[in-house]
Hints:
globular, 4-stranded antiparallel beta sheet
Amino acid sequence: MNPESMIRRPIFLTEKSTALRSKNRQVIFEVLRDANKIQIKEAVQKLFNVKVESVNTMVYRGKERRMGRGHAKMQNWKKAIVTLKEGENIDFFAESAEG
């Protein structure tokens, strides 16, 4: 697995993720369900060029949704909370401001 496919997207628009990022140097990502903590740590270090202190993961069950007259279950997904080492930071908006 390459790092680009392992980390699907950052989750940074919620109140909890904003508070964790500013106070505890933690960043939240949606990752592949098959990825383990070691693979997630290596992928974040390689993609964002930062040092990672620890990784916490949790699996969320997909919700039941209505699709017309029937029901469908959304896929299960995995969330990783990555704690960065002291002095490290990931700035998601720096690249879009330069371009």
